[in-house]
Amino acid sequence: MNRKKGAYPTKRTMNLFYKPDRTTKPATVALYVLFALTCVLGLGKVTVYDLWAETRGAEQTAAGEQTRLEGIMAELADYSEVQERYSLYSATEEERAAIDRMEVLELLDGALGGSAELNTVAIGGDAVQLQFSGVTLAETARIVRALEASPIVAGTRVNTASTTEGSGALVQASVFIQLQKEEGP
After folding, report:
1. Residue in 140, 138, 131, 133 with CA at minimum distance from that of residue 168
2. Burial class (CB in 10 A: 0-12, 13-18, 19+), 143
3. What is the mean pLDDT of residues 48-52?
């Protein structure tokens, strides 16, 4: 490789092509303005219009619910009167705690079984005072055992079982029965 001194490349022609700057023309300025306007509108939709539409929808829903609430409140305007009428016909706490009288009478009917003559029955709260006659002492014991076998009977107490005749004679018995609420399943 033989190089001569001064054999560097040199430019022998001149490029006279000139590209004018078009960024100052009105069309370019209009494009920049249009782009900026599009960006502002896009941001405006997300930050303003969407929130406004959501708020308006929530206000309409709230107005509908308020109308519905007013309708319900109008229906409940006479609630105190209805509650008063209901309390007249519904069971009180005391009555709910009491044992069903029909259940007690069925128990007594089943225990006496037609062999004894029922003289008096007094039911008060959770106590029953029963007086019957026309049975022997053994039958009286059977009746008391039948009463005690019931789940609504807490206990029994025979107050009197008396007769004026000899053994095997019919007696008149007075029994106190303590009731309890039947245990539910």
Report:
1. 138
2. buried
3. 92
The larger pLDDT score, comparing residue 105 to residue 93, is at 105
Q: Is 28 helix (H, G, I), strand (E, B) or coil?
A: helix
pTM of this structure: 0.48
Q: How far apart are CA 116 and CA 144, in angstroms?
A: 12
pLDDT at 49: 92
Instruction: Report the amino acid identity of residue 116.
Output: A
- Which pLDDT score, from 0 to 100, does residue 113 have? 78
Place of tokens 């089943």: 110
Residue 165: DSSP 8-state: S
How far apart are the C-alpha atoms of 87 and 147, rounded to whole Å?
A: 35
The answer on pLDDT for 153 being more than 70 is yes
- What integer pLDDT is reported at residue 54 of this predicted model? 94
Cα(57)–Cα(64) distance, integer angstroms: 11
User: Hunting for tokens 């019931």 — which residue is that?
Assistant: 150
- Distances from the Cα of 179 to the Cα of 3, 100, 127, 185, angstroms: 133, 11, 6, 19
d(CA 175, CA 127): 11
